[in-house]
Amino acid sequence: MSPDRKAENDRNTPDAAPEDLIIALLRMLCTEGPVSVARACKSLGLPRTQMERLLLLLGCSEQWGGLHYVRPEEQRGRTIITLTSEGRALCAQMRAATE
């Protein structure tokens, strides 16, 4: 396994820092567009419960304020994660910062 891949796997474990997981999920949504919760969990190596906590933090709900960057939507029996307008603006800032 390459050192870059190993570092990515280490970052994408349930023990990874929450901010690393947030960045990884946002980066995935910025580059790939909407993804299913199941696919995001598999790509990031997260259990669904941890993904749900990330979605609470990054989304918006009446019980929990959230950051309003993502929105889970039901599509054909699957939960799909999409970026909100705030999330798309953040992605644009992230891209501009790397250029």
Write the layout of secondary structure elements.
Layout (H helix, E strand, L loop, with lengths): L2 H9 L6 H15 L2 E2 H8 L3 H11 L11 E6 L2 E6 L1 H14 L1
Antiparallel strand pairs: 1-3, 2-3
Description:
The protein is of the alpha+beta class. Helix content is 58%, strand content 14%. It is built from five helices and three strands. The chain has helices spanning 3-11, 18-32, 37-44, 48-58, 85-98, and strands spanning 35-36, 70-75, 78-83. Strands 1-3-2 form a three-stranded antiparallel beta sheet. Strand 2 and strand 3 form a beta hairpin. It is globular and about 35 Å long. The relative contact order is 0.15. The model has no long low-confidence stretch (mean pLDDT 84).
The overall average pLDDT, rounded, is 84
Please report the total strand number as a whole number.
3
Task: Give the helices and strands as they follow along the chain.
Answer: HHEHHEEH
Which bin fits the share of residues in helices?
A: 55-70%
Largest sheet: spatial strand order? 1-3-2
Q: Tell me the quaternary state.
A: single chain
SS class: alpha+beta
- The tally of helices reads 5
The biggest beta sheet is recorded as: 3 strands, antiparallel
**Which of globular, elongated, flat, extended, rod-shaped describes the shape?**
globular
Distance between the termini: 28 Å
Cα gyration radius (Å): 13 Å
* Uncertain regions spanning at least 5 consecutive residues: none
Instruction: Classify the beta-strand content into a percent band.
Output: 5-15%
